[in-house]
UniProtKB/TrEMBL annotation:
Record SUPFAM superfamilies: PP2C-like (SSF81606)
Gene3D superfamilies reported for this sequence: PPM-type phosphatase domain
Cofactor(s) named in the record: Mn(2+); Mg(2+)
GO molecular function: metal ion binding; protein serine/threonine phosphatase activity
Enzyme Commission code(s) on record: 3.1.3.16
Keyword entries, A-Z: Hydrolase, Magnesium, Manganese, Metal-binding, Protein phosphatase
Protein name: Protein phosphatase
Record domain PPM-type phosphatase: where: 109-408
Enzyme class: hydrolase
Highest taxon in the source lineage: Eukaryota
Coiled-coil boundaries: none
InterPro entries named among the record's database cross-references: PPM-type-like_dom_sf, PPM-type_phosphatase-like_dom, PPTC7
Length: 413
């Protein structure tokens, strides 16, 4: 079946005031429905399709996209359309190349050691994996702590390796090997233990937001630091995480700290931040048909509020009919399952392959535009003004950006 997003056209323009690119995604043709016209302001430059080396984990990428709402077991009640989009701080955002549509049937290999095979997300990283042969899906975000670069350490190594280990642990899950089963915090713990044993990663750290969406509609989230999530339901914010920080701009963080560094810090009467998965906030949620879950790094939260993310998501969901205005308010559209179909590749047009990809691109593009906007103060700027009123900080905050979006579908609806 061809993608419902049959034509997505991007028009680029430049504004001297923002020194940024803005594109307008419009003219979305809907299969089997009336045409809707929406306009989204994103930061980007329209380029060619991504090469293989720019895609996500090779083991997570197939040549033929698959209907992501197909449950792996017939007794599951819920399925999830999941996608990610990302942009490194110092690179232009390309919505064609910097997007990944999850296929639950793809094989996930062990950790990538060739940095050229990583997504071009800078020090941010993400993972999405089914939990062995179950309808459950694990996904998450890790934001490498940039301060390690001052010690000659690439912060991306920890974040990307950590996510790779969590993805592989979920994919190879065996209940007998997990005391009490796999939970979000347990998966974070397993990934942390594995990266700490990796001889190729001698130092580094990251924040983490890890979730497991169950086939019965339950969601468990473990959040450590200032990455986080928001759960959106029918044009409203249903729940959201609170950042964990030791002080302003000093989030909780998992770390590998060499003994030499610890000794040097102790000699000067100081210490090194070292938080652990046990310190993560764990929350449980009951999902409903049509919910949208957004996981993101602080490159998003420092530039967009939850309300601004809701506006982006609502514009897209209502624009394509995934959410609908009715006499009783906003309800879920009747054909939501069709909206998370991946593109079958038969159309010759440039396409964003699914609703979840379109949402991820929309949020990433909006955050990128806000990060280079020098006139509109974002959440980070407002925090600086609160804690350091004499600092002349205005506008957004340039940073790596990573977003994972999950659209919830209930069987039979």
């Amino acid at each position: 079946m061809a993608s419902i997003f049959r034509t997505v056209s991007f028009t680029a323009c430049r504004t001297d005031a923002l020194l940024s690119r803005r594109i307008y995604a419009s003219r979305i043709s809907i299969t089997g429905a009336a045409a809707f016209h929406t306009a989204l302001q994103l930061t980007s430059r329209h380029t060619q399709r991504p090469s293989q080396q720019n895609r996500a984990h090779p083991s997570q990428t197939s040549s033929r996209p698959i209907h992501t709402s197909q449950p792996l077991q017939s007794n599951s009640k819920f399925s999830y359309g999941i996608a990610a989009s990302f942009s490194a701080k110092d690179e232009r955002y390309n919505p064609d190349a910097n997007v990944f549509n999850f296929n639950p049937y793809n094989r996930i290999l062990a950790r990538r050691k060739d940095t050229r095979t990583r997504p071009r997300s800078g020090q941010d990283a993400f993972f999405i994996s089914r939990v062995n042969n179950t309808p459950d899906v694990a996904f998450g975000i890790a934001d490498g702590v940039g301060g390690w670069a001052d010690s000659g350490v690439d912060p991306a190594d920890f974040a990307h390796g950590f996510c790779d280990y969590m993805a592989h642990a979920a994919y190879t899950y065996k209940a007998a090997e997990w005391n009490g089963g796999m939970g979000a915090r347990a998966l974070m713990q397993r990934g942390y233990e594995d990266i700490c044993r990796d001889d190729n990663v001698l130092a580094g750290g990251s924040t983490a937001c890890v979730g497991i969406a169950r086939g019965d509609g339950g969601l468990e989230v473990a959040n450590l630091g200032d990455s986080g999530y928001v759960q959106l339901r029918l044009n409203a914010i249903h729940s959201a995480s609170e950042p964990q920080t030791h002080a302003f701009n000093t989030p909780y963080q998992l770390s590998i700290v060499p003994e030499k560094v610890l000794a040097q810090a102790a000699a000067f009467g100081g210490g090194q931040l070292r938080d652990f998965p046990k310190d993560a906030n764990v929350s449980h949620h009951e999902l409903r048909h049509g919910d949208v879950i957004v996981f993101a790094s602080d490159g998003v939260w420092d530039n967009l509020s939850s309300q601004e993310i809701l506006k982006v998501v609502s514009r897209i969901m209502i624009g394509v009919g995934a959410w609908e205005h009715t006499e009783d308010g906003v309800n879920v559209g009747r054909s939501l399952n069709q909206f998370i179909l991946a593109d079958d590749g038969k159309s010759g047009a440039e396409e964003i392959p699914s609703l979840q990809s379109f949402l991820a691109v929309g949020i990433t593009g909006e955050a990128k535009a806000a990060s280079v906007n020098t006139k509109k103060d974002g959440p980070f700027a407002r925090q600086v003004q609160k804690y350091y009123p004499y600092e002349n900080w205005r506008g957004g905050k340039m940073d790596d950006i990573c977003v994972v979006v999950a659209v919830v579908c209930e069987e039979g609806k």
